[in-house]
Amino acid sequence: MNPFARIREDVAAARTHDPAARSNTEVFLAYSGLHAVWSYRIANRLWRTGLQLPARLVSQLARFLTGIEIHPGATIGRRLFIDHGMGVVIGETAVLGDDVMLYHAVTLGGKSRHGHARGVRRHPHLEDGVTVGSGAKVLGPITIGAWSTVGSNAVVTKTAPPRSLLVGVPATIRPQTPETAESARGGTLEPEYYL
Question: Which of 53, 48, 50, 92 has the alpha carbon at shortest distance from 69?
Fold first, then answer.
């Protein structure tokens, strides 16, 4: 997909997720979550070509400008939407699928000082369609199954199956119902997404 098509897709995803978005121009110019993702793409391309220092400089500049820190080594799918964004941190070995949504102050981080060897996964994998509420911490090399929702301020340290609702400190796993899925995402999902 060419870069302009990706930008159009990102703007459309933001408009889908945010009922406050009034126009494509507003989203393009004023949404720091999109600016952070676009900067990440530049930094990630540099990172993958072996230019780690320039990649880190791009990511740090984006962090300064947006308040969102995405390590250039992270793997991020299509249509990531970061709503409000301030304080979001995505670690180096994090993997995000398509259609993931993060609210402000989310941390996708490690939980140990050990295991910093190259090639060792230390950060979470969020499968397609995962929503993570504001202030939540998803820590360690765990997997959050597709179309799951992590509640605000939850602390998640264990793998969860698809279509889970994770709430509390430490987070407990509950199956999603149509009502909890609709409330978490601000709209309805197709019935096959429920447990």
Answer: 92
46: which 2 tokens?
């540099």
pLDDT digits (tens, 9 = 90+) for 94-149: 999 999 999 999 999 998 765 566 678 899 999 999 999 999 999 999 999 999 99
Give 180's pLDDT tier (boundaries 50, 70, 90): low
Q: What is the tens place of the pLDDT at every residue in 49-96?
A: 999 999 999 999 999 999 999 999 999 999 999 998 899 999 999 999
Rounded to a whole number of angstroms, the CA Rg of the chain reads 16
Domain of 160: which CATH number?
2.160.10.10
Query: Cβ of 19: how many Cβ atoms within 10 Å?
Result: 9
C-alpha span between 150 and 163 (Å, rounded): 10
pTM for this structure? 0.85
Does residue 171 fall inside a structural domain? yes
Considering the domain boundaries, does residue 179 fall inside one?
yes
The count of domains in the chain is: 1
Residue of 64, 81, 73, 75 lying closest to 27 (CA atoms): 81
Expressed as residue numbers, the domain containing 97 is 74-186
The reply to whether 12 falls in a domain is no
CA torsion, ordered 108, 32, 26, 8, to nearest 10 deg: -60
